[in-house]
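request received
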Amino acid sequence: MKRTGAQIVWETLLREGTEVVFGYPGGANLPLYDALLDYPIRHVLTRHEQGAAHMADGYARASGRVGVAVATSGPGATNLVTGIATAIMDSSPVVFITGQVVSRFIGYDAFQETDVTGITLPITKHNYLVTDVHEVGYTLREAFYIARTGRPGPVLVDIAKDAQQASIEWEYDDSPIRLPGYRPDLRPVPKELQKAVELIRAAKRPVILAGHGVLLSGAMAELQEFAQRTSTPVALTLLGLSGLPADHPLNLGMMGMHGEAWVNHAIQESDLLLAFGMRFDDRVTGNLNNYATGAKKIHIDIDPSEINKNVKVDVGLIGDLRETLDMMLEFVEPCDHSEWLAYIEEMKGDSAVRDIQNLPDSGHLYAAHVINDIWRYTDGKALVTTDVGQHQMWTAQYFKFNTPGNLITSGGLGTMGFGLPSAIGAKFARPDAEVWTIVGDGGFQMTQAELSTAAQEGLKVNIAIINNGYLGMVRQWQEFFYQRRYSATPMRNPDFVKLAEAHGLTGLRVTQRSEVEAAVRKAQATDATVVIDFQVEQEDSVYPMVPAGADLHNMIRRPMSNALVETAQDTV
Amino acid sequence: MQHTLVVLVEDKPGVLNRVASLFRRRAFNIESLTVGHTDQRGVSRMTIVVDGEETSVARLTAHLYKLVNVIQVHDLTTIPSVSRDLAMIKINAPSENRTHIMQTVDVFRAHIVDVSNNSFIIEVTGDGEKINGFVDVLRPLGIIEMVRTGVVTMARGASPLPDFSTNGHRPAVNAIMQLNQYEQGGIEWQA
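response:
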């Protein structure tokens, strides 16, 4: 059948199961947008291509399927860059389709020409420049295949305008993808597996470090079975949260820079670390020289380059986490670590007195209270996306995630502005879910234009702005490490309630803890997107905190007497 | 210790750029990189020499394999092999020096490939050390310009690099297992 390149794009996307794409039209992708009108694919017009990229990312993370974002050449494509880098750092499967100038102009600095494949080379899993209509179909199939297999990641396909316009005889080809150098299906060697089993049998103080890989490979049940059978406590990375239910007795909580004290102490004192689909990021290890020095280490990852990258391990098992755990479970015998677990429980008890939840009500509205209340009033069932900063860490600490995949956050790249667009993407993926985005006043304003997108699409998300009038995390570092010299961190914000109203949406303001429940209920009862401006304590900090580069057990703790008056450094 | 890697890649636009970009991005230092066609259509072969002291060969290999267009990586460092570099040296050759230069060229089994009134172009092949030695001998005579291709390497004996075309990607994974020789951790992979 005669098809244009643009038609081939949408035909192929339909075959890949794409239902919605996020994008922005322009000169070099006009043929794509013209052809789109004839296909049953929903297009979401964003207000900025960065928003489209984060929406596709949020969609991918919430659905487990490949997200798609579309942009034009030049500035359209460069606006995607932050979103692409976000996706690769967090192993998110997204296909980016960009228009490129007509192929005979490539290299001549044509209007809106940019070397997009060059720019995105280090931040994509793979990318393509397509100048021949004959290559459009199978290139897109390869792109989807590469994006979703192995360690998932973003793939960009840059299609010249003439390749979109040209017509050829074309039928969809569903023959197997042939990429001689691409190996997404590695499996661990049995000999190494046995070494791991031996280490597990010998361990007295084991800790599982569960990362994003648990969710990406769908190994939640295997993780739980493994932890229960071996009686091993589980510490989670930020992106691993929800890999094991928060209320599971073996779930310790989040590890790392803002991990709870008992979690980091347990890791430091352990004699065997079982790293499952995590990558020993500097934010979870602290100073590598003094990281879990008494522990043997087993690392399971699907990406061979992660093994021995940051932390030298005793056994490295390369493969899909779920398959590998299945293989291990054939050999792993029940263990009893009640003494070790009791020791950790004791540490937990010591920390409880510092927990903000147990502090007397001072009449101030604390962000942690707000987030904990949202968790409570949504029965812990909401799908939550966050921006980056203090509110993100408080969400990790005080929103207890029991449902796999219910936290979507930018971990590796730490992208401010991710919260709102990723929530919009997630809502398209899971329309029945109650979607909240918890954002700071700073990050929200980076992509707040996407409020218009939500309004135009008639989409319902709940936006909780944790408004402390500062770029809070930077302010916290300035407080701790720069003698409270608040350089460029105070923010004068717009009236967020009026901002919501300007979009025809509901805006609410909360200044007292007693008002939190009513606001959450009101948001839940409203059909359209709601913005809640939670005006919280301005100079609160996230505790505990491992200063960058410090040993993992060397934490700044929340001052016990008065959370706000004392400077945190007194307690180092 | 110098490591010599043979990297088979798909012959597609931009592949050299991907490899070069990887070296820059991950701060790997290369001493020499050559690339050219092979007898198999669609497959190019790179020979990359790195200093194993400052660059972890295991890490480099793993990252090379992450590039979709990289088919196989082999470390030939500990495998008996033949390495060759080719140099062309343009040298001052006034009549009083010509006999001396031609004798030196014979000793090194090099060839004079261009002759003008006052200069020669000499072509020499050999391993890196031989060419360095030859250049040292010629230098006092006045080198006008010089070009080297960089090292290419091939394992000795009849067996070829594993043939990837017959069984998909699996030999590539076996190649990753060579990492084992350099890693204390005892890491192995299999497909």
